[in-house]
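To assess whether ligand presence alters the predicted conformation, the chain was also submitted together with oxa(dethia)-CoA. Input:
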Amino acid sequence: MTKIRAAITAVGGYLPEYILSNKELEKLVDTTDEWILSRTGISERRILKGANKGTSDMCVEAVKMLCQKRGIDPMEIDMLICGTVTPDFPFPATANVICDKLGAKNAWGYDVSAACSGFMFGLVTGSKFIETGTHKKVVVVGGDKMSSIIDYSDRATCVIFGDGAGAVLLEPTTEDVGIVDAILKTDGAGRHFLHQKAGGSMNPASHQTVDAKEHFVHQEGQSVFKFAVTNMADVSAEIMERNELKSEDIAWLVPHQANKRIIDATANRMGLPPEKVMLNIQKYGNTTAGTLPLCLFDYEKQLKKGDKIVLAAFGGGFTWGAVYIIWAYNS
Ligand code: UT7
């Protein structure tokens, strides 16, 4: 029997209009453009403004674009998976809201909570529904309105994060393209270093939790940095080894955009020159589940059918992984 693989056949993206520059942050907290740029590689990030605008609104725009590019109606989508840590509501899932706003009435779906690895985990689980032959069109969207959980008086976190969403369409293929291999990992022992302390069942929202600013992102940056550098580089090297990929075989590294220094360390470990590394952290900062699909969105025109690409991510939880894909189309 011919093996069915899941191939990415279209990409969409959405970035809110408002640009929050390093210069503007200098007015909010004790920081400098020079510090932010040299320590993270970020110049500016996007912020979703407007009352009652949530993660779903950005995801809807990304999926609409994807449908338009592929020439399909949202009614043709069988399933939609949304990676996010900033859902519109604790429940129902943001995937439900997205499908409703899109008019994707034949789709079912759910959210994946894996922080910065949310899109990657969604991509791999979505691919299984294609590989088994039960689903023909699966949308995987990663999006976060990080500005909704960031304390803009905390200079250690507010300079890093931004808002945005990206989406891909998965369809079956029997050609030698698509998602070939994946290594996904979690380690809950790392949860203390990067998390949101309140708002869940263990510590529900109260006046006290609001006063203590426990609904914002808490990050111990240096510890996360060390784990991220090691684990993202290790898992990327592991997927290369397992698939007998040499540096020269790889056309692109698609790394999570958390810190340019983490990206450089991963690329070095894989033996890749900077021109093979997708980078948009300077424009968008860390959009959490949005970074990987937004890289694919920005670089789509440069991708060619047959290109071997490796996606790598690391995020809160801890969660991390690498995915090996052979690109399926020319734009
Ligand atoms: O995407 C999910 C996973 N997240 C990550 O991968 C993030 C990983 N961590 C990082 O990217 C980095 O740790 C940060 C960018 C968050 C921080 O950079 P760092 O080089 O690790 O800085 P640090 O935390 O070691 O702080 C060094 C100094 C401190 O001052 P003192 O104690 O040396 O006087 C901080 O208070 O830099 C200070 N600092 C700042 N200074 C100016 C921290 N934030 C800022 C700031 N502007 N925004």
